[in-house]
Amino acid sequence: MSTSTPVNGPAQWERLAERTLVSTRVLDVRGVLFRHPRREIEREFVVVAAPDWCNVIALTPDGRLVLVRQFRYGIDAFSLEIPGGVIDSGEDPVVAGLRELREETGFVGSTARLLATVHPNPAIQNNRCHLVLVENAIRSSAQEWDHDEEIEVITAPVDEVLAWAREGKITHSLVVCGLMHFESLWRARAGAHV
Amino acid sequence: MSTSTPVNGPAQWERLAERTLVSTRVLDVRGVLFRHPRREIEREFVVVAAPDWCNVIALTPDGRLVLVRQFRYGIDAFSLEIPGGVIDSGEDPVVAGLRELREETGFVGSTARLLATVHPNPAIQNNRCHLVLVENAIRSSAQEWDHDEEIEVITAPVDEVLAWAREGKITHSLVVCGLMHFESLWRARAGAHV
Residue B88: pLDDT above 70? Predict the structure, then answer.
């Protein structure tokens, strides 16, 4: 599949300028001015600008995943998720994933690598979310929560976690998406062991 | 798994008040004041408030999925996705899914139902995204694009679309998440046909 623009297909708008509508601790909202290359019109679209994020699939030696349960202000309720957070400026995604895992759960791993990269929402957000796989994860240090973080750490067998995603016990779309990316690797290994 | 709060686990903060930091056509950003029930502190957190969204798995009679490719202003690039959009106030999610499918692609279906509901981002967004399954989808009408929408419609076999999600050709997290929810149904049917 080519990513070039067909002659009569959707046009690639030209990005002209931007203005910040509001700036907050976790995101900025910008009005970004685009011009259509053929229709001679300009439009301002709303874009949420945020740093890249990371999510972590942390696999224990006995085939369990490390999960965190915390109160989430967006939905005003608890949410069961994989560990993750905001990547610091200039920080490598894998390093960020290992850091967030350690800070939120106290788990560290022997190997770590980037498994996938997605866009949380290409329509209105400019950032990416990197999925980091950490293997042989074991609890080895105390949690170092950010200010106002309170996190319950849970481990559960991989297949149970995948079922929770499918049954709707895990509702965070980026977590479900991360579990789908991990699942093919997991199934391939399970197949190799049969 | 209970959703109650363990005595020493993460606390359910109390939502006290909110103020709008910016209001736009597609989302509002609010500062929401919460109080910790035990620590006697109050904090304002940033919440992106948006209407609920819908995404549509549209399955053709010959086992293909209907996809849309469009320019996305958030990432300033093209994105391959399933159809979807904003649910109107008071609109049923399944009705919204059928409407978005018809408007964006010209496809209509014989049956439709809600397959799953997720939170795009529980940490900072208050809304949900509903996944609607439309079966026996066939092209029967012209597209009715919203102002500034230009959409290329593609169909591809289900297994190819699932592979695209795993390989990173589809990067929209809500789309990947929707495909994971659909996949178990698809595999169960394939198994039943063996």
Answer: yes
Cα(A149)–Cα(B39) distance, integer angstroms:
12
| Max CA separation in chain B (angstroms) | 61
- pLDDT recorded at residue A35: 96
What are the Cα distances from residue B35, in Å, to B32, B40, B41?
10, 7, 6
Of A123, A171, A174, the CB nearest to B72: A123
Q: Which residues in chain A have Cβ-Cβ distances shorter than 8 Å to B131?
A: none
Q: How far is CA B85 from the centre of its chain?
A: 8
Confidence of residue B156 (pLDDT cuts 50, 70, 90): very high
List chain B domain ranges.
14-49, 53-193
Give yes or no for B79 touching A (CB within 8 A). Answer: yes
In degrees, rounded to 5, the angle at the alpha carbon of residue B83 between the alpha carbons of residues B81 and B85 is 110
Per-residue tokens: A114: 């980037």
Q: Does B87 touch chain A (CB under 8 A)?
A: no
Token code pair at residue B12: 């359910």
For residues A72 and A52, what is the distance between their CA atoms, to the nearest angstrom? 19
Neighbours of A172 (CB within 10 A): 26
Once rounded to an integer, what is the mean pLDDT over residues B53-69?
A: 98
The whole-number average pLDDT for the span A26-50 is: 95
Whole-complex ipTM: 0.93
The mean pLDDT value for B112-127 works out to: 98
Architecture (CATH level 2) of domain B53-193: Alpha-Beta Complex (3.90)
Query: Do the chains contact at B73 and A47, CB–CB below 8 Å?
Result: yes
On chain B, the residues whose CB falls within 8 A of the CB of A78 are: 3, 5, 10, 12
pLDDT value for B3: 43
Residue written as tokens 């589809």? B170
Range from A57-66, A123-132, A146-155 carrying the lowest mean pLDDT? A146-155
